[in-house]
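Help wanted!
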Amino acid sequence: MKYGIAVFPSKKVQDVANSYRKRYDPHYALIPPHITMKEAFEAEEDQIESEIIPQLREIAKNTEPFSYGVYKVSSFSPVTNTIYLKIEPSDEIFDLNDKLYTGVLPEEKDFAFVPHITIAQKLSDEEFSDVYGSLTMLKFDLQDQVDRFQLLYQLENGAWSVYETFRLGRG
Amino acid sequence: MKYGIAVFPSKKVQDVANSYRKRYDPHYALIPPHITMKEAFEAEEDQIESEIIPQLREIAKNTEPFSYGVYKVSSFSPVTNTIYLKIEPSDEIFDLNDKLYTGVLPEEKDFAFVPHITIAQKLSDEEFSDVYGSLTMLKFDLQDQVDRFQLLYQLENGAWSVYETFRLGRG
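Answered by r_m:
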């Protein structure tokens, strides 16, 4: 089964992200707005229960909740036409990402970690220019907190279902 | 904010439900297939953290995981044109439902609890006759387990985001 680890922002931030995703993100219906904390990985259910969840509990227990800000959009262009709400980088979010690639957790990383909330993807080059041109003018002033992360699995239709929640700083 | 409590079936059962929901359920994109364990209710975030989550932890701790079977579809017709995978009733699932209407949890119940996974809704009467006529012929033999429930909140677009997971039989 395919698993992933994500942080869901507060409702306030999710609503802002969805106002753009609705128009520009074909994954709008597959998962709520999120910060991908670990790229999707394959695992057996047995291993999830016996090894991975215990380690995720440990990581959560040893990580304090932290704040982040969102002030503007950015893009992965020219690699992809993805546009995202940029999460202001912090040591805390990079540390959490690092921890999620240790121990029994798959360590392969296809990309350097860029904390973000996708709001547009799979746009044609022309659409991208138009949309990015207008979104890049926007200024946000969103303050939010990461106090949990979630382990999800992917259904056959591509949608993601939450399997378990891990609260930061809790046993 | 609007909250709800649901059980998400295993991937196997979710995939079966989605194969019908895709065609017949306009809520397909708003939430994965689920068993609603408590009708949506309004609450303040403060109250969720200070009162409701602690009680949900207690309920989860004092409820053992239990099995259920899905063998056929049924419908709420003529009240609504909703068609669902019928969860074979068990004392355990009714007990859990009862507990979720006690203490600080809102006690209003608009409907008698009928454990189910919706696969079609908001059909016209004509569509309903056609679809129900064919789905009602289906036989399933799905065995699944409830070992957790989830507290969700609703976003402005109508989609539901998981706030926390509660494992049955755990402190």
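OP: Thanks! One thing I noticed: Residues 2-159 of chain A form a domain with the Cyclic Phosphodiesterase; Chain: A, fold (CATH 3.90.1140.10).
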